Amino acid sequence: MAVMPAPMQRLNPFPFFAAMRQKQPVAHDALLDVWGVFRYADVRQVLHDAAAFGSDSRRLVRPPRTQTVLSPSLAGTDPPWHSQLRSLMAPAFSPEMVARLEPGIVAEVNRLLDRVDHAGCMDAVDDLADPLALHVIADMLGIPASDRPICRRWADSLHSDADGQRFAATQRPLLDRWADALHTSATGLQFGEDISYVALQTQTEMDAYFRQLIAERRRLPRADLISDLAAATIAGEPLPERDLVSFCVLLLIAGHFNMVSLIANTLWTLLEHPADLARVEADPALAASVVAEVLRYRPAVMGLARVTLRDVQVGDVTIPAGQRVVAWAASANRDETVFPEPDRFDIGRVNTASLAFGHGIHACLGPLLARVQGRLALTTTLARLQGLAFGAGKLEAIHHPILYRPLHLPITFKRR
Q: What digits encode the pLDDT tens for the residues 98-125?
């Protein structure tokens, strides 16, 4: 029994999820040796019960086949260390910190639109969502503007899984790619996986870069996240450098991908629903509701990987200890028993119990930042452009079984 959408279902995996919720809501794929969980209540159980379902990325790999450089990130650790790390890092995503980023987000959207608004067309992924997301995360961390091209190259290298370039180059079978994809969580890459030489080289470069930047911030602190974390302590001791580095990489790579996806998925969905696009153009205050519904309707990360720490019952099925599990949040967000008319995009939806950011102790730290960035990207774009429509070409989803967004999003428009 397959527990992942087939490649031809990537653009619209939701009929597959609906069928699994009805026919086999907890299923085992013998070929991949992984379990899939599809109903809302069961997905929530997997994400909530950290005592039964672990997130330590080292447990997800059987066996590790390639040396790795980085230690497990916040998303790939379990208590008690996870709890200590999270308590240190949570203040970076507070309302006050996010509010400080808002003027820079608006300014960057305007700068990017200045480059394309005369043309009447753009790729909303390459020209807007991607560079905006990278700029915001780099600003938050305190990465100098002169180093942003390096970050661009790192993101392209590690995100090559999403467009298949790395695997095409190494001619790895599709089955291997699907299995390796299980080591990607809702908040980012888990660096315990089998990785290519290119990815290993990228890890090495990022490790060296962030170690140097952390050392500089310890000598000369600035008003940025790296300086704050470099000064933080646990039980009176500085946070280990390896954990600082892993968090910086997690935020740069995973935060970047998730924000690209949210912005792209928002524009994609509104273009499919022109009446809703007209509503938010007329009333920008609706933008927050649009973003919230997109997070339910088309989440950036469809599934979250866990491993069972003991025998555990999920629904009517007992999953043995030591098993890999994918909790399909994208399926849970379309569960008919929780969301009325779940396949309808409804910006007036009252129920906002989406699992787009996970749930429990491993829930994403950055939902406020994501919602604010998504809202500002949308309102600023609509204040500048009108008549948005799909451009030429057929939409294609990124080539990844768990991550979800269009590979490109060509759109046409007129300047206001």
A: 999 999 999 999 999 999 999 999 999 9
Res 237: pLDDT: 81
366 closest CA partner among 286, 235, 236, 254: 254
Question: Rounded to the nearest 10 degrees, what angle do helices 256-272 and 287-297 cross at?
Answer: 100
- C-alpha–C-alpha distance, residues 286 and 329, integer Å: 25
In contact, 192 and 58? CB cutoff 8 Å: yes
The two tokens of residue 265 are 């998925």
pLDDT tens profile 235-252: 788 888 888 888 888 888
* pLDDT computed for residue 165 by the predictor: 40
Specify whether the CB–CB gap between 254 and 219 falls below 8 A. no
Nearest to 217 by CA among 153, 160, 141, 283: 141
Determine contact, residues 246/72, Cβ cutoff 8 Å: yes
What pLDDT was estimated at residue 83? 66
Beta strand segments in 95-199, E: 121-123, 184-185, 188-189
pTM for this entry: 0.88
Question: Who contacts 242 (Cβ-Cβ below 8 Å, separation ≥6)?
Answer: 70, 71
**Architecture of the structural domain at 7-415:** Orthogonal Bundle (1.10)
Tokens standing for 118?
């005369």
Question: Tell me, what amino acid is at 71?
Answer: S
